[in-house]
Amino acid sequence: MCGIFGCILKNSNVAPIIHSSLKRLEYRGYDSVGIATLHNGTIHIKKDQGKIDEVHRIHNLDEMEGNVGVGHTRWATHGAPLKVNAHPHVDCTGQIAVVHNGIIENYSELKEELENAGHIFVSRTDTEVIPHLIEEVLKENSSASLTDAVLAALKRLCGSYAIAVISAKEPEKIVCARNESPLVLGLADNAIYCASDLTAFLPMTNKAIIVNDGELAVLSGSNYEIKRISDGITVVRQPKIIDWTPEMAVKQGYPHFMLKEIHEQPETLRNTLRLQEHYLDLMATFLDRANEVFLVACGTSYHACLAASYMFSKLAFLATYPVYASEFVEQHGKSVNIDSTILAVSQSGETADTLAAVTASQQRAATILGLTNVIGSTLSRVSRVYIGQQSGPEIGVAATKTFTSQLSILAQLAFRLSKKRGKISQDEMDCLAEKMEQLPQIVEAVILMQEEKVKALAHKYKDAKIFFFLGRGVNTATAYEGRLKLMEIAYVPAIAFPAGESKHGPISLIEPGFPVIFICPKDGVTHKTLIGNMMEMKARGASIISIIEEDDEEVKKLSDDYIEVPKGIPEVLSPIPFVVPLQLFAYYMALEKGLNPDMPRNLAKSVTVK
Ligand code: F6R
Is residue 2 annotated as a catalytic residue, yes or no? Predict the structure, then answer.
């Protein structure tokens, strides 16, 4: 998730406006920044790695001439957060500059094709193919307009994008376009803007136009024209007056970042399906060769590791050991050796306990693999191979979208390894791959269909003093995660166990009305045994709340309340949609108690002390 911005002003330089607008978009990404303006028929660029204020201190972003320009604040996906990878990116002639938010899936093929045609690339980004593609179109057809060239280039791209393009040859214009990444236009008397979201231009104007997927907009003077990318036909759309405050705009109208981030999960899951195959392959190769594999993390990331241990075992027949990072050195410090592999999972890449486990393992010559949301973080730097999970910044303290992304990537790794090892049939692989592709829509459906029900559930149980979360198999991890969310956001004590363990002690807590939440997908052998556990609880008067598949009539009958998830999800993937109602439940329980879910007491987003 990056932020893009473009602006044409009638009478003054755009750079200070771009700078201040990028500041408002900084929550979308902040590892590097850049601005390009058009002045006297030339494109001028200032860009560097670092946060906007740092880059401004060195380069004075306001001191650039020109009344047309574009800017970018970056959250690295392809290529480390270095100056060379910062946007804008230009073609070989330096006459076309592009800023981009999204992921170009087929950039390797395009880059190879363009390099063979003589184009010189300087960055490691996927974005750089775009200016070169536009240049190539213009080379082949010198009478084509910038708009035609952008339209032609976009037809070659697979993936997601919101882009803004300027050209020295048509210096009064910005051409912008969108597919699966947000883009809005802002209209003012003496200016026109395009941006990743309204936040960027809201202090200047509240007159906005949403650009839809598959559309391109040409801005010139203070006019705009929207066209369909598929056939270039003009689309008529009137502006709307937006009555959001700037604070509401940063949260895109959501009352809290946590809710916004829960709702972003279809998009962030889509991003995980666009990972570069060779990183997954490389990591799968390391895992395949490993003698012993430890999955090391804290908190929510640990729950992703716990789920992953089931995925690796079931799909790839690989035994892995999920370990709390804070316990790792005590538990395994002496036995780790050159044959050990540590897959460390950390959203921030800076969690002190996780890094301590990694450092101790490195000292004993173990192989370090990393999964993190922050490229450039310590974890990404110390890992032999790392995968960036591409979830964009997570601002709510409670991890939500980054958890489901971690699960999705770990499941993909398990698939890869399974393929490599020939452990499951082609049919099973195909079915899993198909379901994996459907997960973004499934999660979208869960949010759309169940949010109100979950809200009502939170209202009903708002005074409960304690909850039980029970799951079996891979959904033991979901149970743990549901409990953690509820405790940290709504301050409600909760207990989670693998359901089979409940009768070895915890069941003694049960008395009439005690709420027990069961995570109960239908696929796999755990369904039957979980029903047995439900009956045990019911017999003792517990209130049964179950998260079930749509047509699970048997469990519906046993439940006092239930939340439904679309059916047909393979068990190994089920934590991804099944955790979403639990995230929403914690969120609405916090609201019921008058708490701010974005800022739970005593917690920090990144825990950098041991
Ligand atoms: C819970 C939560 C924390 C983190 C934990 C690890 O919602 O956010 O439990 O999961 O502090 O953080 P990372 O993943 O950054 O290492």
Answer: yes
Angle, in degrees to the nearest 10, between helices 426-460 and 575-592? 10
Residue scoring higher pLDDT (134 or 601): 134
CA–CA separation, 560 and 459 (whole Å): 15
Q: Which CATH superfamily, name and number, covers 3-249?
A: Aminohydrolase, N-terminal nucleophile (Ntn) domain (3.60.20.10)
d(CA 564, CA 445): 10
Residues in contact with ligand 1 by the CB-under-6-Å rule are 298-301, 346-348, 351, 354, 398-399, 484, 488, 606-607
Please indicate whether the domains covering 251-424 and 449-596 agree at the CATH topology level: yes
pTM of the model: 0.85
| 257, 295, 343, 351: residue to mutate for ligand 1 pocket, most atoms within 8 A of CB | 351
Residue reference for tokens 């992921």: 103
Residue 608 has pLDDT above 70, yes or no: no
The reply to whether CATH 3.40.50.10490 applies to domain 449-596 is: yes
Is the pLDDT score of 76 beyond 70?
A: yes
CATH assignment, 251-424:
3.40.50.10490
Nearest CA among 542, 540, 553, 550 for reference residue 518: 542
Domain definitions of the chain by residue range = 3-249, 251-424, 449-596
- DSSP-derived 3-state class of residue 610: coil
CA of 198 to the centre of ligand 1 (A): 30
